[in-house]
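tokens incoming
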């Protein structure tokens, strides 16, 4: 296979949650730029509209779904619509995730004694339940064609202690780290692959943009990352395309850090 064949996702149908910003937008861009038909799902209607307008102007085939992933009925409807409307579902990115605020290294509110039940519940609903449901709703469509790739955005905070972020975030990312392994084993006989991308710090709008606009937090990240810098969203595109395309056909059950060397320490 040559380079074009290895990464050929032309006519693939992809569904991506949290696709109006940050890493989800990067996944959408790389899939659509390479010829996939992409549904971008997000709760931020104005941001989504802007992104769709820009991508369509660049000739990309994109649709939008405005939804809160915590609403599992709406999530199921959007995934069903994408798969049934296009007659296939090749790649699903369970990407939405929210911060639970700063960790103990940067704020009192990040200490274990300060664990807030409402925050814990909200982060479980978004980062854990919605990711599980995304896999649940995608699997039956992929089984029909005995083919598919599911990619969950976890975090290096699900692999190692990460004192800049809070406990609910750590807990839900660690949970999804093992969910992808279990789902990969269950779905492998159906030729459905399930993997996690575990990013280190990337410049995005997470926590309302506050985190990466705070020079103190950015400095802490730069000190933590062996490469000495945070990632740019374009730098996640190659891994996303690898996992979704024929080039990744034997990769399943893996949790792949993309972190400038952070987890290697
Ligand atoms: N940025 C980082 O440093 C980093 C590091 C590790 C993991 N991650 C993970 O990457 C994923 C993407 O985050 P990001 O950094 O790109 O953040 P981001 O805030 O830039 O993008 C998240 C998108 O999800 C949408 N969203 C939020 N809640 C939603 C909901 N309930 N329903 C539907 N859409 C919703 C937002 O509107 C936004 O467009 C998350 O799972 C996050 O935990 C990010």
């Amino acid at each position: 296979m040559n380079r074009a064949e290895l990464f050929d996702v032309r006519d693939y149908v992809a569904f991506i949650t949290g696709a109006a910003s940050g890493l989800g937008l990067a996944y959408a861009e790389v899939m659509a730029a390479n010829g996939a038909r992409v549904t971008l799902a997000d709760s931020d209607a104005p941001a989504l509209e802007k992104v769709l307008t820009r991508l369509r102007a660049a000739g990309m085939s994109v649709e939008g779904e405005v939804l809160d992933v915590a609403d599992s009925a709406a999530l199921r409807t959007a995934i069903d619509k994408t798969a049934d409307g296009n007659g296939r579902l090749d790649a699903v990115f369970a990407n939405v995730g929210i911060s639970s605020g700063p960790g103990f290294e940067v704020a009192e509110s990040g200490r274990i004694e300060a664990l807030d039940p409402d925050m814990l519940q909200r982060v479980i609903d978004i980062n854990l339940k919605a990711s599980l449901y995304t896999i649940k709703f995608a699997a039956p469509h992929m089984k029909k064609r005995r083919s598919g790739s599911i990619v969950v955005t976890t975090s290096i905070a699900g692999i190692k202690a990460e004192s800049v972020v809070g406990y609910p975030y750590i807990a839900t990312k660690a949970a999804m780290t093992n969910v992808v392994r279990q789902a990969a084993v269950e779905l492998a006989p159906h030729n459905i692959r399930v993997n996690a991308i575990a990013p280190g710090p990337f410049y995005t709008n997470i926590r309302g943009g506050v985190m990466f606009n705070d020079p103190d937090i950015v400095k802490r990240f730069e000190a933590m990352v062996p490469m000495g810098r945070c990632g740019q969203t374009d730098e996640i595109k190659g891994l996303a395309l690898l996992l979704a395309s024929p080039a990744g056909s034997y990769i399943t059950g893996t949790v792949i850090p993309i972190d400038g060397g952070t987890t290697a320490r």
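note: Strands lie at 13-17, 37-42, 62-66, 91-94, 148-153, 192-199, 255-258.
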